[in-house]
Design a protein that fits this description.
about 0% strand; binds protoporphyrin IX containing FE; mainly alpha
Length: about 250
């Protein structure tokens, strides 16, 4: 068999490895890795925040990156999990769907890249933040940015060249077929190279996830919403003359 024939044959060893083996290995590593990390490194489960060292750049870079990536994630949930037949049945044409997905996706992707650029610039230029950056952090940044840039570049290039790829006929049903335990490699093989590289880089990122700072994604401090207030009172002996506001009365100790 020639190399090109193996490339288009959905059952070739290489295609089964890339589009069946890699996804299942990444999903297994993601799940088992998180359980392992939680059991053996509970106190290392942290963002390792560097806010104490620098705030000015962080104040811009962090929300831009986090809101951008949240929107990217929501877009992926919609685009990959909702079949094209459902949106068509709801009266949304493919053209209208793509116009909205492309606009929102590009805004989200650009915000993510802009935020990440500020955060990476900060890591490189602010001395204490650079010293606190490990090799693991650098590998995580490379994988994250590679995935984001490949996704964004492929999406934008397809649209500006007038040939947007209908990924809801290829990448999305292949992605769902993995979770139905009936992986269909012929679907992903119809996608352009950019999407294939984007997806492969995403699987590697998911496999690396539990061993990196990205574990903090699963520790959103939701308890803050319902926990009782913590009341701080001054112990200062040289008190001012201004009357304390309600709830801030002095303890008198
Ligand atoms: C296996 C998992 C993934 C699959 C199957 C996938 C698939 C896709 C597809 C089909 C698009 C095109 C969307 C469009 O044209 O509107 C896309 C775009 C994009 N992807 Fe992914 N992706 C995956 C994981 C990720 C991850 C983990 C990230 C970020 C770390 C990411 C970041 C992006 C970005 C920034 C874009 C550009 C436009 C947008 O925001 O939707 N992807 N991806």
């Amino acid at each position: 068999m020639t190399v090109s024939a193996a490339g288009s044959d959905p059952g070739s060893a290489l295609n089964v490895l890339l589009w069946v083996g890699v996804p299942y290995a990444a999903i297994a590593t993601f799940i088992v890795g998180h359980v392992w990390r939680y059991r053996y490194d509970k106190f290392g489960w942290t963002t390792r925040s560097s806010q104490l060292y620098e705030r000015r750049l962080l104040r811009w870079g962090s929300p831009l990156f986090h809101f951008g990536i949240l929107l990217v994630a929501l877009g992926h949930i919609g685009g990959l999990l909702i079949p094209e037949s459902w949106t068509e049945a709801a009266g949304v044409s493919e053209t209208a769907y793509h116009a909205v997905a492309f606009t929102l996706g590009t805004v989200a992707g650009v915000a993510t890249v802009a935020g990440a650029a500020i955060l990476i610039y900060r890591r490189r230029t602010v001395g204490p933040v650079f010293s606190a950056t490990t090799r693991n952090d650098k590998a995580m940044y490379v994988l994250l940015m590679l995935t984001v840039l490949l996704g964004l570049a492929t999406t934008v290039l397809g649209n500006v060249t007038g040939h947007p790829h209908d990924y809801r006929q290829t990448v999305a049903p292949w992605f769902r077929s993995i979770f139905y335990l009936r992986p269909d490699t012929s679907l992903i093989l119809k996608a352009p190279l950019g999407f294939k590289l984007h997806v492969l880089s995403a699987w590697v990122l998911f496999a690396f996830w539990p061993f990196s700072r990205l574990v903090h994604v699963f520790s959103a401090p939701l308890g803050y919403l319902t926990r009782p207030y913590i009341v701080y009172r001054s112990r200062d002996t040289a008190l001012g003359t201004r009357a304390p506001s309600r709830g801030w009365e002095r303890t008198g100790s």
